[in-house]
Amino acid sequence: MTIGVAGPVELRILDWDLKHTNLPSTNAFPLTSHFINALLKRGFKVIAYTNSTEIAEPMVLESGNLKVCISRQKPQPGRRFFLFEVEDLHKMMVAHPADFISAFWSYEFAWAALKTGKPTVVSLHDVAFQILRKIPDMFRLVRWMINYIVVSKADFLLANSAYTYNQLDRRTKSKTRIIDNFYPSTLKHRLAPTTRKGNYIITVAQGFTQRKNIETGLQAFALLRKQYPDLEYYLVGVDSEEGGLAQQYAEKQNLTDGVRFMGPMPYDEVFQLIQNAQVLLHPSREESFGMVLLEAMIARTPVVGGKNSGYIPHLLNYGKAGLLCDVESPDSMATEVGRILADDELYKALVHEGYTYAEENFSEDVIVKKHLMYYGEVLGKPLEPVVQPSTPQQVA
Q1: Is the pLDDT of residue 105 over 50?
Q2: Domain locations in the chain?
Q3: Where does residue 196 rank: exposed (0-12), middle (13-18), buried (19+ CB within 10 A)?
Q4: Are 5 and 102 spatial neighbours (Cβ–Cβ below 8 Å)?
Q5: Can you give the residue ranges of the Glycosyltransferase subfamily 4-like N-terminal domain (predicted)?
Q6: Does the structure show a pLDDT above 60 at 394?
Q7: pLDDT tens digits for range 143-173
Q8: Is 185-360 the same fold as 2-182+363-379?
Q9: Are the CB atoms for 180 and 289 separated by under 8 Å?
């Protein structure tokens, strides 16, 4: 059985011999790569379909049981309805066929997969209509239209959380199964044997948008600095680099004191920063899941997230595995982070509860098994690996 995985793939965290070679940058999403690695570890042959803005011609790379097909992406694809990208991906899928395709997100990758006629399961990691409502621009309108085409054509859908599922219409729900996101088994191997916490809190967010709500996080930190004058705030992710939108806002509002604008960073470096942080503050107004919170729970870093922020309350076990706050209120955010910093017993309890809840509900073993069982239902037969599953290896 050869399983195709279509979506944004971070090539440098794939479990293959080429991770340290000169690879093109892609539209990266770590979870897709973790899923591919999990399939490889369980003995499946995998063909990954992704794309890049850095290549002039399509590329095919192979290592062991993994083949990666990289299609092209042109600048400003939304202006062309992603038609070039869909066609380039589709050509790759036809030239390098899999028996079955798991497509991440309900956009160009899934559209291309459905055009092949191969059995395809589309994973929903957001709800396009809700995003369009919150960010009503032309790009999100195009994304919603593509999502409409994909969801209409797909026979098998997965929602990455109960929150995502509950936002779907009745017809879409009827063909959707809920399978949560997961953290990779190798994440524990990335933990430092001894952790020395730095004197900082951290926020990891991709984009300075109304949804991510970084501005309220900055306001909350300004309040915390009055109580903890040596505390720092690390901002990591797109738009949080020096000179980026987050810093521009902070400078206008006089909120830069103690803030380090770090911008996008490699996955392993971000995880290390999370592990060494005192607290992960997640000011987002809405999340369909919240992978960075899950990673912090495994890193034994306490989390503060929004009590009304999509799936976040469930992910934090309604305040038992992390503290919940009103993300519209800088005072509420600062208060909950301050509680953790001031109370060693609360700190230890949140670390224990967060780690245990994540391990019992969102581990790779738990979630990938659900995927494989569902794929077997779709195909009408169990999925058979091509080799015996490998023994998990520790990652340095």
Answers
A1: yes
A2: 2-182+363-379, 185-360
A3: exposed
A4: yes
A5: 34-182
A6: no
A7: 999 999 999 999 999 999 999 999 999 999 9
A8: yes
A9: yes
Under the banding of pLDDT at 50, 70 and 90, the label for residue 392 is very low
Q: Which CATH class is domain 185-360?
A: alpha beta
Tokens of 156: 């098998």
At 390 the pLDDT is: 56
For domain 2-182+363-379, say whether CATH 3.40.605.10 is its number.
Answer: no
Question: Position 201: which residue type?
Answer: I
pLDDT at 389: 65
For the cut 60, the answer to whether the pLDDT of residue 393 exceeds it is: no
**pTM (two decimals):** 0.87
